[in-house]
Model the fold of this input.
Amino acid sequence: MASADRPEQPQPQPQPRPDTEPEELPFFVYGTLRPGEVNHDAFLRGRTRAEEPARLPDALLYDGPGYPYAVQCPGAQTAGELISAAPGQYARLLAELDRLEEYHGPASPLNLYERVRRTALRPDGTGAAAWVYLAAPALAAALAASGTPIPDGDWLARSRH
Done:
């Protein structure tokens, strides 16, 4: 039978692609990625458009093995910076930070941190949506049970206490 003689087959309709690319938000950093710290120099130096002080409400900072962990905690605050990627740097920077923070995807059991969308506050009180890496649930529970909170939620001030 010639193709013209075949009955019409329904054509598959294109399915919408799930949005797998995260929103291009600044990053709220609170530990070794802050300016002057080792990972800032290794990952961010020369790759940012803006760096500004900020605080993350409802996040408690815990001391870790050479780096801190932030954990969801109502009423607490964590000091840090909002870091905006330079033009053309976002995708690569996101991938490198995910690798550094051992983030393998939403709710992965392999995650050390979860990358979550939160609102950080600038010094003038205005909010800015940002990606932040919070301790993964199992780690957050262990920290709540026996971790050492960092006074004032400021990783850079930890040695002054």
Residues 90-100 form the longest helix (11 residues). DSSP finds three helices and five strands in the chain.
